[in-house]
Specification:
The strands form three sheets. Strands 1-2 form a two-stranded antiparallel ribbon. Strands 3-4 form a two-stranded antiparallel sheet. A two-stranded antiparallel sheet has the order 5-6. The protein has 141 residues and is an alpha+beta fold. The chain contains five helices and six strands; from the N terminus they run αββαββαββαα. The structure holds zinc ion.
C-alpha cells in the first residue's frame, strides 16, 4: 500500500476511469482552464493511501473546497454526514440535475452535504454548463 503521491501512471488511470470528467461536479477536463487533480477521497493528510480505490478525478475547485474533509453538515438535518465517495457511491443516487440542468441538486443527506461543501454550483461552473448545453456537451449522458 502506497503512502507516496500517485505516480503519473496511476493519475492517468484515475483520469481515464473518470472519462476525464470531475467525479463530483461532472465538469469536463477538456473545457476547464484549470488543471484537474487526483484527489484522495480519504485525505492523504489523514492517512489515505494513493491507491486507485482511494483516488478520484477532480477539478481543482472541487478538490480545493473538499480539502481534507470527509464529512460535512447536511443543510436540512444539520447532521454531519459522509461526503460523496465516487468509489462506493453512485452519482445518480445522491444527485440530480435541476430541470434546466444547470444546477446539481443533492437528493440525499450525503448529496446535499457534498453540494454545500464542494460548492458544486459555483458561478463559473453554472456559466460553463450553460455554454456547454448550447453545443450539446451538457448534461453528461
Ligand atoms: Zn468538480
Amino acid at each position: 500500500m502506497s503512502r507516496r503521491k500517485p505516480t503519473p501512471k496511476v493519475k492517468e488511470q484515475v483520469a481515464n476511469r473518470a472519462e476525464y470528467r470531475c467525479e463530483y461536479c461532472q465538469a469536463l477536463r477538456s473545457y476547464s482552464p484549470s488543471p484537474f487533480d487526483t484527489e484522495h477521497i480519504q485525505p492523504y493528510s489523514l492517512g489515505g493511501l494513493s491507491i486507485l480505490e482511494n483516488l478520484a478525478y477532480s477539478c481543482h475547485g472541487c478538490n480545493s473546497d473538499k480539502s481534507n474533509r470527509i464529512k460535512f453538515l447536511d443543510p436540512i438535518s444539520d447532521i454531519s454526514v459522509p461526503l460523496f465517495n465516487p468509489r462506493t457511491c453512485d452519482w445518480q443516487t445522491h444527485f440530480s440535475w435541476s430541470d434546466d440542468t444547470l444546477l446539481i441538486i443533492g437528493l440525499t443527506p450525503t448529496g446535499r452535504a457534498t453540494v454545500e461543501c464542494l460548492n458544486l454550483n459555483r458561478e463559473e461552473l453554472v456559466n460553463l454548463r450553460e455554454l456547454l448545453k448550447l453545443v450539446g456537451k451538457h448534461p453528461p449522458v
